[in-house]
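Handoff note, outgoing to incoming analyst
You'll be picking up this chain. Sequence as last confirmed:
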Amino acid sequence: MRVLLTTDGSKESIAAMRAASRLLSSEDRKVDVLYVAPELRSPKSGNIARRSMEDRVAAETRRILGEAKGILAEEGIDALTLSESGSPANVIMHDAEDYDITVIGAKGRDTRSAAGLGPVASRLVEHASGCVLVGREPPGDRGMRMLVPVDGSAGSEQALDTLSSFFDLESAEITLLHVQETLWLPYEPPAEQSRESPDPDASQNNQLSRELRLEAEELLAESRIRVLEHHPGVTTSIREGNPANEILSEADQGDYDLVVVGAGGASEMKHSILGSVSTKVAWNAPCSVLVVRVQE
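Most recent structure output, in case you need it:
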């Protein structure tokens, strides 16, 4: 597993590195840490001023990468340090193609908003072709708690397959969640229908709800087999409502360390819907989020 950790020296990127170190499986793990320095423009004052700026950027690069290497060493990781210059979003998007997973902090050091994602993290979540881990506060000493929404889509199935590749599941508590979207079929009974008369539409809606519930239970049972059939730490849950809202509600109430959510590829017809759920979860979750995108 090739892991690209990105850093800009911010506390958010440090939290993301620590979270990734503790969440991702250590088996066959190769870790590189990348800092993207600002691209220098030639000043009108000449070469002396440019050399001074280059020296300052080089010193800042060494400081940030040295700090990152020290933090990773504390987590038992000997990482290779890399530096490039240019637009952070462009550079990371390009380099991410060579890695199995890219790790980024929710916000960078220049992001002023207190919530959500910074511009670089947001672009990666929405457009990166591979897996993106938005790292937030790292898990403590207890076992890892993971929330995995499943809906039978290609993105959901790929997210399930990714679990065993990236994480040590034997010691984890895993909740498989299916959100059954609320039925909203309006019905107005005819004026001549008495209150005692049976409501045929309501009966049909109840039957449809029961069938959807059975389908959800079957999907969760299949998903459990796909993950770890007999693992006592794997539980299933069904909620009803808006998928993104219910996933965030469960993540907030369940004290999870990680949410693993699938997203569709750009050529998939459901891309806008799947993408909106994964993006909303990545923006608002109280914990780390791994976005697994279907490969083209």
